[in-house]
Amino acid sequence: MFTAFWVAYASFLLPSAVRAAAQYNMVKEYAGESFFDDWTFYNNADNLTHGNVNFLGNKDAFHDNLAFTNDAGNAVMKVDNTTQLKFGQNRNSVRLSTKDQFTVGSVWVADILHVPYGCSVWSAFWSSAPTWPVGGEIDTFEAVNQDPMGHMGLHTNPGCTHSSNAVQSSTLINSTDCSIDANSNQGCIITNPSPASYGEAFANAGGGVYVTEFAIDGISIWFFNRTTLPSSLQGNVSTIDTATLGIPVANWPADDCAVNEFFQPQEIVFDITLCGDYAGAASVFYQTCTGVCYNDYVLGDPSFYNTAYFEVSYLRVYGEPGELTVIQPSSGVRSVGLGRFATPALVLGSLLALVWAL
C-alpha cells in the first residue's frame, strides 16, 4: 500500500515536473552592430555537406563584406557575388553558429527580411547539438534552388518520428522518420505551406518572423509574414507567451519523439552553401533548375548570387523563468544530468529512492 501510494503520487507529479511553460523571458539578443559578437565562423571548406564553397573565418568574411551590418542596422550574411572563378575553385560563403548553447525550455525568434535563393543555393537557419547527430538537429528554415516554399524538419538518432497526433497547420508532410539512417538522412520534414516562405516571394513580402519552441513536451515552429504577425511578437518584447501564437506550422510532440532523449542543448546556425549533397543532387536540382550545378552556376556569372544572402533584423532567445537556458562555452557543458532534462523513469526512480530513505 505504502509503495503503491508513493508510486502513484510520483506519477501524478511528473507531468507538472516536465511540462513546458508557455511563458518565456528574453535571455539573449543578437541585433544591430553587436549581432556578430557571439558567433563562431566555420572557417573551412564545406566538408560537412560537400557544397562548392569555402566558409570564411570572421576576419575574412568581414573584410570581404560577406558578413556585415547594413545601414538599416540589419545583419547580412551572403555568398560572394563578384568573383569569376576558374574550374576547381569554390565560391566563398559563410556558416556561423552561436558560441552559446540553448537548453530545452527555450524559444528562439528570428525576424528575417531576406533569405538566400536561386539555382545551386542551399540555405538554412537551424540548430544542432555540438555532438551531432547525438543531440539532434532542428531545421527552422531550409530551402534549395528555386523551391516554391521552404521547409522545416528534425534529424535525430533512430527512434524519433513525426506523430500522427501532431497539432499543426501544415498538411504537407514530406516524411515522418527523423532518423539520420532513414531515407538518406532526409529527416522528418514538413513543408511550409505559405507561398511567401522562400525566394522572391518571401523578399517581396518583406520577409517574416520564425518562432521555434524547443520544449520538453515537443518542438514547434511558427512562421508569420508581416500581415499575420501577432501583436505579442511586435516591437522589442522582453517576454513571449507561445499560447498566444496559435497553431504552429509544424509540430513534433514528445509522445513519438522524446525531446529529452533525442535532443541536447542547441547551437543556432546560419549557413549558405552551393550545390552539395542536397541542392546539387540531380533528383533535386533538376526539379527547378537546368544546366549543371557547379559548371553553370558556381563557375558562372557571379551575379547569379545577387539574391544569395540572409538579411536579419534580430535573433532573440527566450527561456523559462528561473531555469538555466544559456550554456556558455567557458562552462564546458556538453551533457546534462538529473534535472529538467531527466527522463520520467529516472525522475520516478529518484523520487522512490527518496521515499524509501525516509
TrEMBL record:
Keywords: Signal. One of its GO terms (biological process) is glucan catabolic process. InterPro entries: Beta-glucanase-like, ConA-like_dom_sf, Glycosyl_Hydrlase_16. Residues 1-20 form the signal peptide. One of its GO terms (molecular function) is hydrolase activity, hydrolyzing O-glycosyl compounds. It holds the Pfam family GH16_XgeA. Residues 21-287 form the GH16 domain. This is GH16 domain-containing protein. It comes from Dichomitus squalens (strain LYAD-421) (Western red white-rot fungus). The lineage of its organism: Eukaryota, Fungi, Dikarya, Basidiomycota, Agaricomycotina.
